[in-house]
Amino acid sequence: MQDNLRDAPGKLDAKAGIAAAAISLDTATITLNWGTTYQRLEGFGAFAGRATPFFESPKRDSIMKQLWGTDGLQLNMIRGEVMYNYPFDKTTGTVTIQPAGTSIDMDVTSAGYQALTTAQKAQLAQLWILKKVKERYQTPIMFASTWTPPLSMKTNTSSESGKNFNGLNYSCCSTDFANYLAGFTKAYQNEGIYFYGISPSNEPENVFSDWPASYWTAGHLGEFITNNLRPALNAKGLNSVKIISSENAAWGTANSFLSGMDKSNVDVLAGHGYVEIGDLILGKRGLNPNPATWNYATGNRPVWMTEACDDSGVYDNTMVGGLKLAINMHKFLAECNVNAYVYWLGMLAIRNNESLICTNGDGSLDYPKTYDVMGQYSRFVHAGYYRFNSALANNSTLKVSAWKDPATGKFSVVIVNPGGSETHCRLNLSGFGSSQLTSYLTADNSSAHWQQSAPVSPAANGSFVVVVPPSSVITFTGNAI
User: What's this model's pTM, rounded to 2 decimal places?
Assistant: First the structure.
């Protein structure tokens, strides 16, 4: 900007003419107000489940790098699973998380590995993933969710699912289940994995699943957390481990569930990002396109969206699928004010919308546009950033969120354009300035995951004129001065 002050009068007149011409092209005005600040971001992540194909993939090191490494999504969170089939000694409260006689570095083609049960392979795989992610990328936030208690502790001891209200048998097993969760957490701590938090449920309202699940009422889950889980964790010296709840499938369901639950010992409030129950009854599935802000006081506790994907149909690796995720992420981050966003699966050994990285029939990896869209947030909006005001005018199509690091002055503006028209935007900076912006584009025809532009300089008045392509997500980064 100092160069502008040294320009000759003729140059200033010319620049003014260029700026006037640009204004005539504007179809959106975005005002970034540095002084109006909202929630603090804690990060982005993915689930480490479906761990066996991850562990067995010959490309597992590359996959891990593309999810948590600096060249990839730069995720700083990972969600694990408290599996229900670990060996458990009720007398000592000890949970065995690694099958006897195995090594996390054992050859997956070896006879010893092939002799393991399906459950043992999954246990070993998850342990490998979590240890390697911590070792290689120092991922700071690891947490685990529980699909179901061990079958011996359920009302129907022969069923994995939550069908017909099958869940924890409160008359006999609340203490045992709490000790199981604490034992799992302690066993991982002994392996060098210090869980940030533990969640005793996953979609607790579920009474129709064919997969492992457990039904809970809000009253019983709150009582279990306060009377059993928190004391069990503390008894094993796990006082700093946070309790996450309640992880309902739909955001609106989580709102009603948590509002009627004893949350006195819940440290992180959580829900999932799928369609609401009314849509599900009508046969709709997939990402919630319009989650509503919770209408009860959260007590300033962090709010996390801990699972989402488009599970609604045929595999789509184009921007059609990418924009579904972009809208979902924008709604949760910029309207529901969540502090963290965690995708469902990191990888699958097939092509499926549930995963950020998929595998083609020839074994090569496929990166759908959902992978790129996730990176528009996770690569350029880091833990410790705060959302700040980004007022959009003269446009009803774009979705805009702005993020800043108060310590360094770095900032990012993520713009989603689900429309079919190129949009010219004027970015007005209020309370700060910047000498340049750099953009990173995701579109169907973009040449890289995050196609980088040449830096853009401000106009004479300090604003920026930028172009947002149709059907795209684009992030602008800069430094405040």
Answer: 0.94
